[in-house]
Every structure is written in C-alpha cells, then in structure tokens.
Amino acid sequence: NKGARRPADVPPSKLKRVGVIGAGFMGAGIAYVTAQAGLEVVLVDKDIEAAEKGKAYSHKLVSDQIMKGRAKTADRDALLGRIKASADYADLKGCDLIVEAVFEDPKVKAEVIAKVEAVVGPRTIFGSNTSTLPITGLAQTSQRPKNFIGIHFFSPVEKMLLVEVIMAKKTGKKALAMALDFVRAIKKTPIVVNDTRGFYANRCVGNYIREGHLMLMEGVPPAMIEAAGKQAGMPVGPLSLNDEVAVDLAYKVLKATKAQLGEGAVDPAQEKLLADMVEKHGRLGRKNRNGFYDYPEAGPKRLW
Ligand code: NAI
After folding, report:
1. How confident is the model at residue 53 (pLDDT cuts 50, 70, 90)?
2. Which value does ipTM take for this structure?
3. How many angstroms is it from 42 CA to the middle of ligand 1?
4. Fewest Cβ atoms closer than 10 Å to its Cβ: which of 6, 90, 185, 269?
5. pLDDT tens, residue by residue, 245-301
6. How far is ligand 1, taken at its centre, from the CA of residue 45, in Å?
7. Residue 119 belongs to a domain
8. How many distinct structural domains can be found in the chain?
9. For residue 240, how far is its CA from the centre of ligand 1 (angstroms)?
10. 197 falls in which pLDDT band (50, 70, 90)?
11. Residue 284 belongs to what domain range?
C-alpha cells in the first residue's frame, strides 16, 4: 500500500500509553483493541460512570472470547488491568498518543483539544476519530498542529480492519509515523487518505446507504433491498449497515452536507426518511435497539 508508506527517516514510535477520550460507542471499542495489543490505555469521559461503562465493553468482549475458548480468565484480568477509566484529563499525562472520540461537534472537540494540550507533553500526538469534520479545521484549534492527525476507525471497531489516516495541512511526519505505527500495532490496516468530506470509505459507504434509503422511499420492499446487497457481495444490506453506524449519524451527515454544499447536494426523499426516523420515531439504529430493524434485548442479530 503505497499511500500508507511510513516516513523512513522517523525512528520507530515510542508507543506505550494511549489516551482515548470519549468512552462511547467508538471510544470503548478503540480502548479494547488498544489494550488487546498490550498497550496501556487511559479511557476518559465526562464522568467516571461513563468511563467505566466504556471499560465494561472490554469486559464484555473478552468474556465473549473466554466463552468461545479463545481467551483465559487471566487474559481478561490482564487486559482490564491495562485500561484505566477516568474522568480526569490529568491522567492523560505521559500518553504517547491520544485518540479523541467525543461527540461530533467542533466546539466539544476544540474544548477537548485545549484540555488535552494543557496536560500532555509537546511530543504527544493527537488523533481525531471524527467522521465528518475536516482535520485541517480541527487542527486550527490546536497549539501543536504538527502533532495533529486524523485516525478514523469504523464500527464495530473490534471487527473492522480498516483505519483511515488523514493528514491535515500542517501535520508533521512524526505524527504520520506514529499514526501508522499505532494502527499496525493494533493489527489493523491503515490507508492514508485525503482530508475531504467523508474521507475515502464514507464517500463510498455513504452512497451505498443512501441508495438503500432511496429505494425504500421508492417503495422497494426492505427485504429485497437487503437481500440484493448481499447477493452483490456486500457483507450486509444498506439498511442493516445504517443501523450499525447509527441512523442519527447518517442524518447529521446529511444536514452537514446540506449546510456546506447547499440544498441541491442532498436528496429530499432521503432527508424526509431520516428526519422521520430520528425526530418522529426516535429510531437511531442498533444503539437504541430500534432502527430499520428491531433489536430485541435477548440475542441481538449478528451482522458480521
Ligand atoms: P457516542 O455519543 O457514543 O460517544 C461519545 C462519548 O464522548 C460519550 O460517552 C460522551 O460522554 C463523551 N464526551 C462528550 N464530550 C466529552 C468531553 N468533553 N470529554 C470527555 N468525553 C466526552 O459517539 P460515537 O458514535 O462513539 O462517536 C464518537 C466520534 O467518533 C464522533 O466524532 C463520530 O463522528 C466518530 N465516529 C463514529 C462512528 C460511528 O459509527 N458511530 C464511526 C467512525 C467515527
């Protein structure tokens, strides 16, 4: 992969301790894969309950592995011992890399960047997991734009191998080397992509999901939409996929696209569908067990 070539003149990154900020859906998964690779993790959220809840996701995942005979109780104890849940940014001191996965709101992200930079040393690299905000824009709020980079995971983090690495205008080669070293250390595949709306994968995936929405609005039965996607070789149909990544996230992306590119950039039928799903019916996807599908408490459907 030529695009993911590591700068040859940068020595291997010293990577021991990783801070993950935001212990929600993505941050909890990032903490798990990082700890699984033997790295120490400081998992920070606004309050300790949220941070502990994020850590509990690792407990669940490794317990599933134990049930399948792929891990031992001692592995679980060791892995959980590597994750420190915290509500105190001061605990991020000493981290070599920070991965931010807080709400998709530039103001919240800017606050987090300032709080992190107040406690970490000048060599700490800061990676944002934003799905839609330009990395160059976020980096402008940083005092250390050379250390600022995009590290974009896909959900569910423990299963998806691809990670996009996005260089902002002022990102330095040490940050690039660190991001690539980190992604490889956690046994995922990095690709370096341009800092454009949707980066690479979401430009493709967004269109797959959008066509699913539009077919639904045209009256195509959902089961047919889903089955055709699978027959075409996709691991899941577009509606299931949207349930996985969250319906409200798709709606947010649509609204951001409209704000940035104007009315003509979005399809009114898709906008109506998403507005109804999110605002009228509160169907946000698998995360609240109600999306295009229902996800009953017992035995959630496995997509991957
Ligand atoms: P989420 O809502 O599940 O989690 C966000 C977490 O951040 C919450 O636990 C919240 O309490 C915490 N948080 C908010 N402000 C904070 C602060 N100031 N300090 C510490 N913690 C704070 O959101 P999700 O889905 O995990 O998304 C997080 C980021 O990852 C967003 O930027 C999103 O665009 C991106 N992303 C999401 C994907 C998805 O499939 N949901 C995929 C790839 C990226």
Report:
1. very high
2. 0.99
3. 16
4. 90
5. 899 989 998 998 899 899 999 999 999 999 999 999 999 999 899 999 999 864 444
6. 10
7. yes
8. 2
9. 21
10. confident
11. 201-288
Say which CATH number the domain at 129 has.
Answer: 3.40.50.720
Q: Which residues pair with 290 in a beta bridge?
A: 285, 294
Atom 28 of ligand 1: nearest residue by CA position: 101
The residue type found at 32 is: Y
For 168-177, letters b (16+ CB in 10 Å) and e give beebbebbbb
The phi, psi pair for 125, rounded to 5°, reads -95, 140
* Residue 105 CB less than 6 A away from ligand 1: no
pLDDT given at position 150? 98
Q: Would residue 293 count as lying in a domain?
A: no
- The finding on whether 108 has its CB within 6 A of some atom of ligand 1 is yes
- Are 263 and 236 members of one domain? yes
Do both 272 and 188 map to the same domain?
A: no
pLDDT at 2: 45
**Is the CB–ligand 1 distance for residue 249 below 6 Å?**
yes
Instruction: Say if ligand 1 is within 6 A of residue 46 CB.
Output: yes
d(CA 37, CA 128): 20
Mutate to test the pocket of ligand 1, among 20, 21, 26 (most ligand atoms within 8 A of CB): 26
Domain final residue pick, 130, 165, 193: 193
Asked whether residue 7 falls in the same domain as residue 100, the answer is yes
Residue 145: asked if its preceding bond is cis (omega within 30°), the reply is: no
Which residue's CA is the closest to the ligand 1 atom numbered 35? 130
Count of CB atoms situated within 10 Å of the CB of 82: 18
C-alpha 69 – ligand 1 centre gap (Å): 32
* DSSP 8-state code for residue 132: S
**Could you list the active site residues?**
164
The residue nearest atom 12 of ligand 1, judged by CA position, is 22
In a domain, 302, yes or no: no
pLDDT in tens, 102-151: 999 999 999 999 999 999 999 999 999 998 899 999 999 999 999 999 99
Q: What residue has token string 């704000």?
A: 259
Q: Tell me: do 69 and 111 sit in the same domain.
A: yes
Q: Is residue 299 one of the residues assigned to a domain?
A: no
Identify whether residues 29 and 136 lie together within a single domain: yes
Is the Cβ atom of 228 under 6 angstroms away from ligand 1? no
